[in-house]
Amino acid sequence: MKVTIQGTLQEVQPVQEFASGFTKQLVIIATESKYDNLIPIELVKDKVGSFDSIQVGSTISVNAYLGGREYNERYYISLKFAELNDVQRNVHEQQVYQAAMAPPLPTAQAKPQGKQLHMEADAGNDLPF
Fold it and tell me: What span, in angstroms and rounded, lies between the C-alpha atoms of 122 and 127?
């Protein structure tokens, strides 16, 4: 079953690598509800690193697969990352992003060649004639 989770990116944990070659990463999303809910979402295989360019504190919306399993007569729920729907960058990150995407400022142009102003031609002479 696919679910959508909206909240603030709280933490991006380091990638875990296992001897079998399997890789996994955990991200924590804090939902905005009456009670603080910290939702762990697993990123596995090719999804690992999907949050590398997103800063902690950004508001995000993700789709995840809800799964469950039984182990020793206990039941566990897991959320596996499917896709990133939306990212609303925090104010500082947005300013950095906009600065990086802004077109370059025009460079100063050289003075036109040809006639020179009287003051430029006689820069060392303070006489008006």
Answer: 9
Looking up residue 15, the CATH number of its domain turns out to be: 2.40.50.140
- Predicted TM-score (pTM) of the model is 0.65
**What is each CA distance from 93 to 11, 98, 99, in whole angstroms?**
16, 9, 10
Number of domains in the chain: 1
CB 63 within 8 A of CB 43: no
Q: Is residue 128 part of a domain?
A: no
- Residue 118: inside a domain, yes or no? no
Question: What single-letter DSSP state applies at residue 103?
Answer: P
Question: Could you tell me if residue 11 is inside a domain?
Answer: yes
For 1-27, what is each residue's pLDDT tens digit? Answer: 999 999 999 999 999 999 999 999 999
Which of 79, 99, 62 lies closest to 24 in space, CA to CA? 79
* pLDDT tens digit sequence for 99-127: 666 666 666 555 555 555 555 555 566 66
